[in-house]
Specification:
Chain A: Keywords: Membrane, Transmembrane, Transmembrane helix. Chain A: InterPro entries: FecR, FecR_C, Ferrdict_sens_TM. The complex is a heterodimer of chains A (344) and B (182). With 344 residues, chain A is α+β, with helices and mostly antiparallel strands. Chain A contains eight helices and 18 strands. Chain A has helices at residues 6-16, 22-34, 36-50, 59-77, 84-123, 261-265, 279-290, 315-325; strands at residues 129-133, 140-143, 149-152, 157-161, 169-180, 189-193, 196-200, 204-209, 215-222, 225-229, 232-239, 243-248, 254-258, 271-278, 294-296, 305-311, 327-333, 336-342. In chain A, strands 1, 2, 3, 4, 5, 6, 7, 8, 9, 10, 11, 12 and 13 form a 13-stranded mixed beta sheet that branches. In chain A, strands 15-18-17 form a three-stranded mixed beta sheet, covered by helices on one side. In chain A, a hairpin with a 5-residue loop joins strand 12 (243-248) and strand 13 (254-258). The longest helix of chain A has 40 residues, at 84-123. By secondary structure, chain B is mainly α. Chain B has nine helices and no strands. In chain B, helix 6 (117-127) packs across helix 9 (157-181) and helix 8 packs across helix 9 (157-181). The longest helix of chain B is centred in the C-terminal third of the chain and has 25 residues, at 157-181. The chains are: A alpha+beta (344), B mainly alpha (182). At the A-B interface, helix 1, helix 3, helix 4 and helix 5 of A face helix 2, helix 3, helix 6 and helix 9 of B.
């Protein structure tokens, strides 16, 4: 085994911990592919890194220790050597241990419930999925067992594997979701969307992958994500914050562009955002957002693009506002909204 | 909640924030005092002292790098004082760590478990010289930054890096021996 220099070792560790820049990552990936010695070292270090023990988390003992400290603080606070102002403080402080006990009981109850829940999930078999669905117009916040929070946009489906968190944290998404992933370098978090797999250690990002859309889009708000397509490592893309990857389902090509966070994650704050969307895409968005089918009647509309943000207003008002800048009209036919008109 | 937010709430006298901070760092510090070589009684006392102190002095608290390195450093100082160790960590001569002899002989029980490479790697780390092990564990297991480790142990960030580098080289050497024996 030849010895490599310190800088390269630390670079590999930085990569494993998700702490290096895009340029360093590119350099490292290049080196792994061309330098045998380097790729040996990479393998070894990755193995060494994954062998670290998890730090035991003894809730019971922690709560015991905390209760003792709180008792001491209260005793110190209760020494009657101060003014009347201090007196009112001690009353509040004396109430605290009760609260602490209540909190620890609650913690215990929660951990028991969580433990129980896990047992039940496991007994259901590791291949089982938990499904979370949203209907058109509906949004949902889902908390996963590892502390990750997923906000699911309308008409979407998030499936969580039964063995989620055992080795990897894997979910399957159809539709759109915003992920706030709890950091855990040992258990990568992977979002599967058709041919695109997005892998992260812990970060905030948005994935849009509706079955009837032409593209799959991964937009990174913070941290670092790795996007793989068709399991082809040579196509791997590593995104920096503020960048998004758009994968075209028709030609299998991906491109990376900048994006404005508001445009992508506005939906979480109930903002319907069109960012130079074609009318085809806009109609799909409207239909998911308001839960009714939307059809376009004039092919001339297809040539226009829409830009605008609408905050929590009814569909007809949205169309009314679009009408002010664009020559459109609409009517309901049964339960379908038909839009016609032309670009200005 | 982020540390910085918790800290500012603690400074404002928020007991719940204080409790959260304690529960967040207790497991880490309990693991940390063990590899500093302290027993349960001393270690638990050190943690309790540090947090009691943190609460009582919250108005005057000065945190340089992070609250994480502050509590680690404070626990370390108490344990070192208790054991009569110098506050400043002694750094071994440069050539020491890499010249550690490596035993080629595996014990019978090690042969039994040699497939358990994970366990073996943990054992290799155990074999590191005291300081190298401490620094490596702080980075590897506790995920402290170089800068934080340097501050906690009162050494330079470059020394931290060198120790991590040596620790990995040592583990790789041992892994290689393991591979050759299989």
């Amino acid at each position: 085994m030849a010895y490599m220099d310190e800088h390269h070792y630390l670079l590999i560790i930085g990569y494993l911990e998700g702490k290096i820049t895009e340029e360093e990552t590119q350099y490292l990936l290049q080196k792994v592919q061309t330098d045998k010695e380097f790729s040996d070292a990479f393998e070894d270090i990755a193995e060494i890194w994954s062998a670290r023990k998890a730090i035991p988390n003894n809730n019971l003992r922690a709560n015991d220790a905390l209760n003792r400290i709180n008792k001491k603080i209260d005793e110190l606070g209760a020494i009657p050597d101060q003014s009347a102002k201090r007196h009112s403080n001690t009353i509040i402080l004396k109430l605290r241990p009760l609260l602490a006990i209540a909190a620890s009981v609650l913690l215990l109850v929660c951990s028991f419930w969580f433990y129980n829940n896990r047992l039940n999930n496991n007994s259901a078999g590791s291949l089982a999925f938990t499904e979370n669905r949203t209907t058109p117009g509906q949004k949902k916040k889902i908390s996963l067992p590892d502390g990750t929070v997923v906000t699911l946009n309308a008409s979407s489906n998030l499936r969580v594997t039964g063995n989620f968190g055992d080795e990897k944290r894997e979910v399957y998404l159809e539709g759109e979701a915003f992920f706030d992933v709890k950091r855990n370098p040992e258990k990568p978090f992977i979002v599967h969307t058709g041919k695109v797999a997005t892998q992260v250690l812990g970060t905030h990002f948005n994935v849009s992958a509706y079955a009837n859309d032409a593209n799959i889009t991964v937009s990174l708000v913070q941290g670092k994500v790795q996007v793989d397509m068709n399991n082809d490592l040579s196509k791997r893309i590593i995104l920096d914050p503020g960048k998004q990857m758009t994968y075209s389902k028709t030609d299998g090509q991906a491109r990376v562009t900048d994006f404005t966070t508001e445009d992508i994650t506005g939906w979480k704050e109930n903002k319907l955002v069109f960012n130079y969307d074609s009318w085809t895409d806009a109609a799909k968005k409207l239909s998911r957002w308001y839960g009714i089918p939307v059809q376009l009647q004039d092919s001339t509309l297809l040539r226009c693009k829409l830009k605008g943000t609408f905050e929590n207003i009814p569909l007809t008002k949205v169309l009314g506002q679009i009408k002010m800048v664009s020559d459109i009209s609409w009517k309901m036919q049964g339960n379908t909204m038909i839009i016609s008109g032309k670009c200005n | 909640m982020e540390d910085i937010e918790l800290l500012s709430k603690v400074k404002a006298g928020d007991r719940d924030a204080f409790n959260s901070l304690f529960l967040k760092y207790y497991p880490l510090l309990a693991d940390f005092y063990r590899f500093l070589g302290a027993g349960t009684d001393d270690g638990e006392d050190a943690i309790a002292d540090v947090f009691l102190d943190l609460w009582l002095k919250r108005d005057r608290l000065q945190v340089h790098t992070s609250i994480k390195s502050y509590v680690y450093g404070a626990v370390k100082n108490r344990i070192y004082t208790l054991n009569g160790k110098n506050q400043k960590m002694q750094v071994l001569p440069e050539e020491y760590a890499s010249e550690q002899p490596i035993s080629n002989q595996l014990h019978p029980d090690e042969i039994l478990f040699r497939k358990e490479r994970r366990v073996m790697i943990q054992r290799f780390v155990d074999e590191l010289p005291e300081q190298g092990k401490l620094i490596f564990m702080m980075h590897w297991q506790h995920q402290l930054e170089h800068q934080e480790i340097a501050e906690i142990l009162n050494i330079s960030p470059n020394t931290v890096k060198t120790h991590i580098y040596r620790a990995i080289n040592y583990c790789r050497k041992r892994l290689l021996l393991l591979n050759n024996q299989q």
